[in-house]
Amino acid sequence: xxxxxxxxxxxxxxxxxxxxxxxxxxxxxxxxxxxxxxxxxxxxxxxxxxxxxxxxxxxxxxxxxxxxxxxxxxxxxxxxxxxxxxxxxxxxxxxxxxxxxxxxxxxxxxxxxxxxxxxxxxxxxxxxxxxxxxxxxxxxxxxxxxxxxxxxxxxxxxxxxxxxxxxxxxxxxxxxxxxxxxxxxxxxxxxxxxxxxxxxxxxxxxxxxxxxxxxxxxxxxxxxxxxxxxxxxxxxxxxxxxxxxxxxxxxxxxxxxxxxxxxxxxxxxxxxxxxxxxxxxxxxxxxxxxxxxxxxxxxxxxxxxxxxxxxxxxxxxxxxxxxxxxxxxxxxxxxxxxxxxxxxxxxxxxxxxxxxxxxxxxxxxxxxxxxxxxxxxxxxxxxxx
Length: 385
Prior knowledge:
This protein is an alpha/beta fold. The protein has 2 domains: 38-277, P-loop containing nucleotide triphosphate hydrolases (Rossmann fold), CATH 3.40.50; 288-372, 2-Layer Sandwich (Alpha-Beta Plaits), CATH 3.30.70. The chain has 12 helices and 14 strands. The strands form 3 sheets. A 6-stranded mixed sheet has the order 6-7-8-3-9-10, with helices on both faces. Strands 2-1-4-5 form a 4-stranded antiparallel sheet. The longest helix has 18 residues, at 220-237. It is elongated and about 75 Å long. Mean pLDDT is 82; it is low at 1-34 and 377-385.
């Protein structure tokens, strides 16, 4: 995987979420296969907005985006404001028509359905009905009850009243709002409104759920509960979830894979575990930010990433005993991602990089990801005693 370095403003990390609880009546989806088939694919996706046709002013929101989201995973796209995240997710279900490139969802090329004829429009609407979408702003109709808001997509699909009612009540129970069916949006909290939005997005039995900054308007506690709900739905209903966010906490809490966008391009992507094992990964550094400055010119500063079994081993103390060296810990961050303990630690060793080739090799032998801060390590031959 190619990694390009870009400065990124990191976010404060939140407490990890509790393990999901099963929902009665729903079977668990299969475990995510690292070689799973992509259910969402974009190829060369480009979106150009023409702000002033007479003057020819153009803004490129997406610039040749290639995205592959595997079946059954939660995939997060993160980036600063203006990076192209919202344009990307709106092009995935063709709320925005791409300028060029293709979008394939569940094996169906949606861009091929985006013709101008009535038949093409009907087929596109049918395809969209199998893609749920949750918005940042809840977009609930104030004159309708909670149940009636959930029923709205089913009305559009021509579902009978009895079936609409049954389905809406089932979905409200699924998202924990069975007792709010007859309430109106004005009577709900922000988190409850978003749960209604999620239930409405599930009305068409989608295999794919798109989330457009669904938690950015919520307080931290409510955010955690909504993220947990999305993860539960992913696991229990087999949903593939594509979400966009500007918050690193969201990626850390629920995502199996992630991509970093900048200026309309995806500049880094992969599973969270792959990113953590990639030297120089901006996403890995942002997920687990550590700081600390070198205390002298004759010192070596190293960022050590622990994950899997290595996170539970006393590797640093072993290093100190084995090589009889004093180790300074400049900073550390640790959390749980995907049920695994993962952390980063910035340590300082006495001596220059050339003097620490063997100790650094020892750390790598223990299965740790090592980044030497401020050094071009590849220019120096490493060995292990």
